[in-house]
Write a structure and sequence with these properties.
By secondary structure, this protein is mainly alpha-helical. The protein has 12 helices and 7 strands. Helix content is 57%, strand content 8%.
Length: 335
């Protein structure tokens, strides 16, 4: 009987010692795993904590370690979501603040790279790629302006100069808008001249072949006086007209009169002088000269216009006044 009691007592002691040993072993492993988390050895900590079967805060530390592991890899979104779910456990709040800042900085750097590449695409003429990239950036820096700018240049490249010029004018000097406005204005004028020349030649052929109605209709379409822009300003020149008497535009003055051509220096008639046209003696050409108006607008279309200077033939602009001369052009039909 005594022997049975002694055996039972020894068994109880052994079980108690075993349980204590097991508890001490888990605690030590747990503490080492927590230390590994705090020292950035996340994978080691995770593997150790997973073997503890939920001992104390093992599950939270596993989530915490995986969140910091994601943050270290640059996956800030995953890290922040996991840390927010821990409700302030350990240094979750500190890392949330840090990762939020790092995520913002990383996104700004990404957007800057996309932005710079898109600008390079615009400059190299790769407009579709540029527009697609800028559209992903929403309102980042000047993305909206660059989209309008790229579309304008795209229209210009396709020969739609009117659309291109209007879009560039709306950008108020952004990038090289002014340069392209000047270029497209010239190209539009040249394209229109080529079109009119083609219509003109075909109409002459119609006359020679007896197709008079078609010829007359074609010639009548050529009577428009174009609304040429001022190459130096973005002012609206208005609409084309069908005037038979009109003034030259800047583009036409430069086309028909060379800058050093004596005929560019206007000699006023007696009538012009009597009506108040300014005049003065020009030693270069040896005669009295005056400045003369053009039909192109100046810097502001409602109050100023361009003119050709009487002393050097340069083109400038000023507010509309009564002391300038005019050199009217008259459109006549020769048959």
């Amino acid at each position: 009987m005594r022997f049975k009691k002694l055996c039972a007592l020894l068994l109880a002691v052994v079980l108690t010692l075993g349980l204590c040993s097991c508890s001490i072993g888990k605690k030590g492993k747990y503490e080492k795993a927590v230390d590994a988390v705090r020292n950035g050895r996340y994978q080691e900590a995770i593997e150790s904590l997973e073997s503890l079967d939920g001992y104390e805060d093992s599950a939270k530390y596993i989530t915490y370690a995986r969140a910091l592991q994601a943050g270290d890899s640059g996956d800030y979104e995953t890290a922040i979501k996991a840390l927010e779910a821990l409700n302030g456990f350990e240094k979750s709040a500190v890392y949330i603040t840090s990762y939020t800042t790092l995520a913002y900085e990383a996104e700004q750097a990404r957007m800057k790279n996309v932005y710079n590449q898109a600008i390079a695409d615009v400059k190299s003429g790769n407009y579709d790629a540029a527009i697609a990239a800028f559209e992903t950036l929403n309102d980042y820096e000047d993305s909206g302006k660059y989209i309008a700018y790229a579309r304008a240049l795209q229209a210009g490249d396709s020969g739609d100069y009117e659309t291109a010029i209007k879009a560039l004018e709306a950008l108020n000097g952004f990038e090289k808008s002014a340069v392209y406005i000047t270029s497209y204005t010239t190209l539009a004028y040249e394209a229109e001249q080529a079109r009119m020349k083609s219509v003109y030649n075909q109409a002459i052929a119609d006359v020679k072949s007896g197709n008079y109605d078609a010829a007359i209709a074609a010639f009548e379409t050529l009577n428009d006086v174009s609304a040429d822009k001022n190459p130096e300003y973005d002012t609206n020149p208005g609409n084309a007209t069908k005037d038979k008497v009109f003034l030259l535009s800047i583009v036409e003055a430069n086309k028909y009169f060379e800058s050093d051509d004596d005929t560019r220096m206007c000699t006023p008639t007696d009538y012009a002088t009597q009506q108040g046209a300014q005049r003065g003696f020009n030693n270069k050409v040896g005669r009295n000269v005056c400045w003369w108006w053009l039909r192109s607008p100046g810097g502001t279309s409602n109050i100023s216009a361009a003119y050709v200077g009487g002393y050097d033939g340069s083109i400038s602009g000023c507010n509309v006044r009564s002391d300038g001369a005019i050199r009217p052009c008259v459109r006549v039909r020769l048959f």
